[in-house]
Amino acid sequence: MYFKRVFQSFIVGFALIVLSSFSDSTPANYAGSVKMPFKKYGYSARQAAARLLDRFTFGAKPGQVNELLKTGLDAWFEQQLNGSFNEDNLALRLAQYTTLNLNNETIVNKYMNAGQLLRFAVKNGLVNKDSIKGGDKKEYQQKLRSLMQEQGFKPIKELQSELINQKIIRAAYSNNQLHELLTDFWFNHFNVSITKQQCQQYILTYERDAIRPNIIGHFEAMLEATAKHPAMLEFLDNANSVSNSKAKKARGLNENYAREIMELHTLGVDGGYTQADVTAVAKAFTGWGIRPMIHESPAKNLFERTAKDNLEKRGFVIEGDFLFRADKHDDSAKTILGKNFPENGGYKEGREVIHLLATNAATAQFICKKLATRFVSDTPSLNLVKQMAHIFQQTNGNIKAVLTAMVNHADFWNQKITREKLKSPFELIISAVRATNAEVQQPFQLYNWCAKMGQKIYFYQAPTGFPDKAAYWINTGALLNRMNFGLAFAAQKIPGIKIDLLALNNNHEPESTTDALNIYSNLLLPERDHSANILRLATMVNDDAFAAKINAAVEKNSAIEFDAFMEDAIKPRGNRTTEKQERNKNNQSIEPIIGMENNTIIAQVVGIIIGSPEFQRK
Fold first, then answer.
1. Which residues pair with 498 in a beta bridge?
2. HSE-up (13 A, CA, CB side) for residue 215
3. Which string of DSSP letters, residue by residue, matches 482-495?
4. Opening angle at CA 102, ends 98 and 104, nearest 5
5. In this predicted structure, what is the pLDDT of residue 575?
6. Cβ(461)–Cβ(516) under 8 Å?
7. Which terminus of the chain has fewer Cβ atoms in its 10 Å neighbourhood, N or C?
């Protein structure tokens, strides 16, 4: 019962802390260069360095505070913005992933999705289409496997595995951490999902070609790049959107992309647009599609037989894998957000809509609030968002300038909201790798844990992307799984993950569990006050059955009675054990750990720290 009460208090305290928020509205310094006012707000240089590492990396590595101080805070942030740190080591780690440099045409003809493979098999007489449903499933699958081997096709899961693996490796080992954070942020903003068969083959190149090159440039460039990429064209169905007057089949105008480009990508749900605007935008984007890429398909054969000059004369536009089909475009006049677009606008019309949306004041407000929510607070102040939006509009949506304004603003340095943000499961696993200098040999094992904790990266089905607020990630099962991850990770029970915990402490063994808690708290979470957290964790470290209890709780997913948590959390201080009494009690139970076999106590200490509320916050 005592263990349960302590653990309940531990998690409720965490939940209450991460859900609180506060924002200062002091005006910011908006010079073009980075000028962080950290001293003015009570930070030492070391504390400011740790703050930057918390928010602009996936987590500090051992000794990185000292490295940052040598570089200089302002210079380090400038280099992070520019992505100018050396990446030779990362390149070596990524060299094993052969799909990373493939183009879309190679991918769609080598890593076929299920629908393509079936059509190919039927076309070549290997499968009888009419007998698939009633036939032998195992025989059917064997025929497809044989076909893939004969034709040199690869399972699409291999493509997806490399996509996932490279993301984990980049996040863990890139020296240009801000670029990795921004790639993750913007992919989430312009979300597409592997769960949709039509777009799953294009997601690797979508992140590589549409998102990554534009993360610190002008927002409009990224908006256009995502709009024209096959992954987005398929995910939100714009590749099949045709003028109703030119539709030869039942399929005609599709408003999915038009709605989401306004609601999710630019203006926001309160951006002042109407249903009439949605319909008009959908019409403006009719004809925006994908050039035929599947070998020996009728569409590709026809496309290749038609001279490019002839297509261009007819108003077609070919840019890489993007194809504007003038014969499918709605040529009528349109009015969008009060602006008139004359008839026969063609391809240029869609680009003008993108410019109109990208430069709208509501877009500046919406995008800057999302950036402030990601990097500052779950509830950013109106002043901070207003100032960032002002810079957004002044610089035509220059993301680098907006981020500079954000880090120069008083709100970023407001100590009342320091470590208010909660790590997502992906951020948690990567921060654990970085904090321990872990060697990741099987990245997909970490993905499995990430999915178990509720974040199946690249698989989020809604176009909204994963929510970026603490409340989304806080629930009983998720918190238990986080603690279980910490214990499994530190104990090296995750295949393909190697850690040398003693090396982090220069191969010196701590003298006691309290000593271990102090040493590893400071190593894993530099420049923080760990006294209160160590008091909470000491009881768990000294409970020999702690790991077993967490495992049992995860399996049941019901060990935490939330009402009891809340009741305990709001009890008057006089009804609780005093910190001094708790400290004395814990000291009485401390056992020396020198010589413990396989350093199991050190692993438990590190695992509990990683699973603790303090490590979850950033």
1. 439
2. 24
3. HHHHHHHHHTT-ST
4. 145
5. 36
6. no
7. N
Cα Rg of the chain, angstroms: 27
pLDDT, one tens digit per residue, over 410-447 is 999 998 887 778 999 999 999 999 999 999 999 999 99
Residue in the block written with tokens 């030779």: 88
Query: Measured between alpha carbons, how far apart are the two ends of the chain, in Å?
Result: 31
Q: Give strand pairing partners of 339.
A: 336
CB 509 within 8 A of CB 594: yes
Instruction: Round the average pLDDT of the chain to a whole number and report it.
Output: 86
What CA–CA distance (Å, rounded) separates 46 from 586?
Answer: 31
> Looking at residue 409, what is its pLDDT?
95
Using left for φ > 0, alpha for ψ between -120 and 50, and beta otherwise, residue 43 falls in beta
CA 463/CA 237 separation, integer angstroms: 12
Q: How far does Cα 392 stand from its chain's mean position?
A: 23
Q: Give the global pTM.
A: 0.87
**Span 200-223, average pLDDT:** 98
Q: Are 546 and 540 in contact (CB under 8 A)?
A: yes
How far apart (Å, rounded) are the C-alpha atoms in residues 140 and 122? 11
Residue 269, helix vs strand vs coil: coil
The pLDDT of residue 547 is 67
Euclidean distance between CA atoms 153 and 148, whole angstroms: 5
Does the pLDDT of residue 2 top 50, yes or no?
A: no
d(CA 231, CA 218): 21
What count of Cα atoms within 13 Å lies in the side-chain half-sphere of residue 423? 27
From CA 40, how far away is CA 34, in angstroms rounded?
15
Provide the 3-class DSSP secondary structure of residue 612. coil
- Which conformational region is residue 5 in: left (phi greater than 0), alpha (psi within -120 to 50 degrees), or beta? alpha
Q: Locate tokens 């089949």: which residue?
A: 249
Judge contact between 464 and 495, C-beta under 8 A: no
The neighbouring-strand residues paired with 151 are none
Residue 36 CA from chain centroid, whole number? 26
Q: Which residues contact 20 (CB under 8 A, 6 or more apart)?
A: 420
The domain limits of the chain are: 2-19+422-616, 232-358
Provide the 10 A C-beta neighbour count for residue 532: 11
Residue pair 127/141 in contact (Cβ under 8 Å)? The answer is: no
Q: 114 pLDDT band (50/70/90 cuts)?
A: confident
Is the separation of the CB atoms in 177 and 79 below 8 Å? no
Write out the H or E segment, with its range, that includes residue 14: helix 2-18
Model confidence band, residue 594 (pLDDT cutoffs 50, 70, 90)? very low
